[in-house]
């Protein structure tokens, strides 16, 4: 069903999570219901996280029949789940067409973060990333993005909630811009998940037109850039996206990114032994980010037998971070959570796709 009104008898029901609240209000009107029904639906779907029409017990039977006729409510299916010693949980989910995607629930001392995917595979082919090696199979719909958070929230310990959502799983979010933005707006809707935009981060490999669009259409959510190279040549070797959008263009888009006073753009920088971890690179990074309200998130590379790169020495990591701090940059070292289950940065990939 692609129209918002009642479908023809032989059309397939749509995934209800693919609909924004406004679209559901339009559908409700089309089937003779009041538009406020969409608020009730959002509450059931995303506040109470109902997974069947029967559970929506303040909706009339007649209305639930209409819903069941026009929509399906079953979520993408969790087919495997792994838990690391640090509490990180990675789930493998199967989509209706048989493709599989991964999402991660990261446990911090007192809260949880979810890392979600936007595509099956990825076309960006970053050299250090397992997902990049899969190639792009297809974009996820907004509902398939949203349902990852529903699935992960079903694994939370009692009375715990998800505090942060990061779009850093499989795929380049700005290659699937419309569905990424639609899912983000569903997370922000105050009748459903009601996430604060400060708690949502979208990470891009450097799609400049996407950054510019995002700046105006989602200016309150956080932006992260996967940088990893401090010269155009170095970045090009690691991230082919630089052939299309140069480092200079990328930094210019970051300089022009409108921000509220408190906000910084996060630059993710993976430290790989002998490739990106020298003090010379740290020095260059400081000068590159001059004039940008930036925060650097350093990530020690997780070795993988399928890729050529090596993890950096601890001393090199500390030296690199100290150099940035000594030169006025906010620089954090991200703990690589979920290493034992291949849930750490750059390690998401499914074999079957
Ligand atoms: S790092 Fe991100 S953008 Fe690059 S290939 Fe992997 S998933 Fe795609």
Please identify the structural class as seen in this structure. Answer: alpha/beta
Distance from first to last alpha carbon = 26 Å
Proportion of residues in helical segments: 25-40%
Total of DSSP H or I helical runs spanning 4+ residues:
11
Order of helices and strands: EHHHEEEEEEEHEHEHEHHHEHEHE
Mean pLDDT: 91
Report low-confidence residues grouped into runs of 5 or more. Answer: 1-9
Instruction: Please give the largest β-sheet.
Output: 10 strands, mixed
* CATH top-level class of the largest domain: Alpha Beta
Quick one: overall form?
Answer: elongated
CATH architecture classification name of the largest domain: Alpha-Beta Barrel
Q: Count structural domains.
A: 2
Can you walk through the features of this model?
Helix 1 crosses helix 2, helix 4 (about 140-155) crosses helix 5 and helix 10 (about 280-290) runs parallel beside helix 11. The chain has 2 domains: about 15-70, DNA polymerase, domain 1; about 75-340, Aldolase class I (TIM Barrel). By secondary structure, it is an alpha/beta fold. The longest helix has 13 residues, at about 315-325. Helix content is about 30%, strand content about 20%. The strands form 3 sheets. A 10-stranded mixed beta sheet has the order 3-4-5-6-9-10-11-12-13-14, covered by helices on one side. A two-stranded parallel sheet has the order 1-2. Strand 5 (about 100-105) and strand 6 form a beta hairpin. It has 11 helices and 14 strands. It binds iron/sulfur cluster. Iron/sulfur cluster binds next to loops.
């Amino acid at each position: 069903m692609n129209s918002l009104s009642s479908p023809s008898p032989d059309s397939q029901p749509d995934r209800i999570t693919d609909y924004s609240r406004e679209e559901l209000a339009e559908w409700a009107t089309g089937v003779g219901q009041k538009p406020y029904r969409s608020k009730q639906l959002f509450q059931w779907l995303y506040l109470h996280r109902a997974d069947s029409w029967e559970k929506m017990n303040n909706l009339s039977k007649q209305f639930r029949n209409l819903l069941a006729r026009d929509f399906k409510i079953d979520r993408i299916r969790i087919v495997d789940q792994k838990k690391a010693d640090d509490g990180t949980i990675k789930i493998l989910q199967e989509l209706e067409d048989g493709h599989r995607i991964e999402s991660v629930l990261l446990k911090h001392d007192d809260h949880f973060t979810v890392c979600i995917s936007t595509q099956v595979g990825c076309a960006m082919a970053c050299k250090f990333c397992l997902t990049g090696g899969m190639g792009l199979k297809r974009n996820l719909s907004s509902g398939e993005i949203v349902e990852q958070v529903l699935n992960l929230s079903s694994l939370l310990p009692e009375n715990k909630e998800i505090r942060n959502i990061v779009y850093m799983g499989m795929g380049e979010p700005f290659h699937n811009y419309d569905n990424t933005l639609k899912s983000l707006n569903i997370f922000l809707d105050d009748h459903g998940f009601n996430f604060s935009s400060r708690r949502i981060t979208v990470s891009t490999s450097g799609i400049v037109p996407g950054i510019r669009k995002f700046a105006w259409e989602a200016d309150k959510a956080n932006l992260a850039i996967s940088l990893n190279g401090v010269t155009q040549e170095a970045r090009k070797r690691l991230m082919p996206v630089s052939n299309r959008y140069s480092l200079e263009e990328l930094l210019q888009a970051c300089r022009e990114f409108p921000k509220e006073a408190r906000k910084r753009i996060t630059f993710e920088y993976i430290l790989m032994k002998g490739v990106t971890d020298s003090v010379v690179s740290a020095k260059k990074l400081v000068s590159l980010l001059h004039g940008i309200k930036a925060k650097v998130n350093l990530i020690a590379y997780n070795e993988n037998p399928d890729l050529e790169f090596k993890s950096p020495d601890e001393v090199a990591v500390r030296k690199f971070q100290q150099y940035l701090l000594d030169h006025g940059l906010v620089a954090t070292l991200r703990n690589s959570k979920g290493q034992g289950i291949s849930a750490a940065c750059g390690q998401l990939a499914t074999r079957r796709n």
